[in-house]
Amino acid sequence: FPSMLLSRLKSKGKVDVPVINAYTDFFVNGLWGKKEIDIHFVPNQTIKTTLICNGVPEQNIFVTGIPIHEAFKERTALRHTSRKKILISGGSSGLGDLYRLLKALKREQPDRADYYVLCGKNEKLYHK
What we know:
- The chain has about 130 residues and is of the alpha/beta class.
- It has two domains: about 1-65, no CATH class; about 70-125, no CATH class.
- Helices cover about 35% and strands about 15% of the residues.
- The chain has helices spanning about 1-10, 45-55, 70-80, 100-110, 125; strands at about 20, 40, 60-65, 85-90, 115-120.
- The strands form two sheets. The chain has a three-stranded parallel sheet with strand order 1-2-3, with helices on one face.
- It is elongated and about 60 Å long.
């Protein structure tokens, strides 16, 4: 949302500051500012192509991948196995009955994969 607002303010000449988008999803929605943004850090070539088709100059777009906190890299390196890795997310609020889903998966397919759960702000889920 701030990206869109800054883009609009820049287009009206009300703001003259550099603005950088760092995309954290593999899609671009209408809440991202596009043309007035100075630099776009995108997760992949597909997103770069999408932005170019929407009028963003190619020289303003850099394919960098999705930013990942160092703590996740360290844990992944320590737990490297040949097993599948499955990421489960309930969004920024950790919504859905993710705990029950995990219990069912472990019961049906024990030890077939490593499950990573993004809990968002859901402290109760995090502690479970």
